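WARN retry 2 of 3 for item q-0093 after timeout on previous attempt; input resubmitted unchanged.
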Amino acid sequence: MKRRPLIKSTLAASALLLSGLFPYSLQAAETIKVGILHSLSGTMAISETSLKDMALMTIDEINAKGGVLGKQLEPVVVDPASNWPLFAEKARQLLTQDKVAVTFGCWTSVSRKSVLPVYEELDGLLFYPVQYEGEEMSPNVFYTGAAPNQQAIPAVEYLMSEDGGEAKRFFLLGTDYVYPRTTNKILRAFLHSKGVEDKDIEEVYTPFGHSDYQTIVANIKKFAAGGKTAVVSTINGDSNVPFYKELANQGLEATDVPVVAFSVGEEELRGIDTKPLVGHLAAWNYFQSVENEVNEQFVSSWKAYAKQKGLPNADTVVTNDPMEATYVGINMWAQAVEKAGTTDVEAVRKAMAGQTFAAPSGYTLKMDETNHHLHKPVMIGEVQDDGQFSVVWETEEPIRAQPWSPFIPGNDKKPDHPVKSN
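OK item q-0093 returned
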């Protein structure tokens, strides 16, 4: 007598599930939650919003193929709003309240260092998709962007070469935080090893969101009067727009003083008149302009996704290096989960070692077996008048990352694998 209502309820629940009307909270148990931790407001939104959208596109693609372990991925998006302490709060929320299996996020090193203690304390897993200064390895982080030997050092070597203009003096201009300062510490030591003296190196830093570069660009012109000069830019976020506009205003062309940027790609140049900037450089591991079938599909899928989702300025969207690193990281994590048969952090960590993926860069990238960094190619791109980059130099094969720079004393004694600090 009392069993019939239960049967009816079960049948009704089945019907609701098939119709897509089943209560969301009950369906959630059948999904794998994935955290997306990027600034969607504030000074870094210009760079990070596209990474959030790329993560969502990649998750959609994986779900369309059946998901991971037979379950759909459920993105949990949070906005730390370019506020570094808020990054740590949002990270803790993702791990303790939302119970995400993995997080993809951060751009600046200060945001990554803000969340790092949280991921180590709670044994979470973070995939970090942006070039950085190195000097770090964590068992809870996989670094899918470049280490200094995969970007900064090759870029400066290029500037010193005949093809790069044989620069003798270097103006190191960056945003005032850990990534530019540590990168420039490494670059200064590298330049010393090449015989460049301190009098031929100038370091200048500006705050996040800085917008007045008139005096700085004038000083670059004065510094350049002392010999062949190149600018190494580690400016981050929306400050890049007024900096490049001021270069154009003062007529500082690449033939006079080339600028090589480490945090400027296609997304940051979108909407800027790049005609006066033709010939200036950027160092990355991927550019939208590289020609191969994988990249052709990647760019096509992104443009179609942008139109389908009604993203802002969908007709002019571009891909860039951190977007590719996001795409590669999510796909590699999915492969590792399938290999491990679980989302358990320790099992996935082990399964990530040696994972490979045919990337849009045209290379098969590999996650190093020990140091949690990708083997990546290095490319130097020259700004074109359409806002794209023409690759003027690249390595013949992916380069293994050196998280501990050999130019920093004592780094030769540091381990080549992450060590648990908690």
